[in-house]
Amino acid sequence: MADMSDSLLELRDIETSYGLSRVLFGVSLTIGRGEMVSLLGRNGMGKTTTVRSIMGLTPAAAGSIRFGGEEIRLFPAYRIAKRGVGLVPEGRQVFPNLTARENLVATAANHGGTTEPWTLEKVMALFPRLAERASGMANLLSGGEQQMLAIGRALMTNPRLLILDEATEGLAPRVRDEIWRSLERLRAGGQSILVIDKNVKALTRIADRHYIIERGRVVWVGSSQQLAQAPAIQHRYLGI
Question: What's the pLDDT at 128?
Answer without folding.
Answer: 94
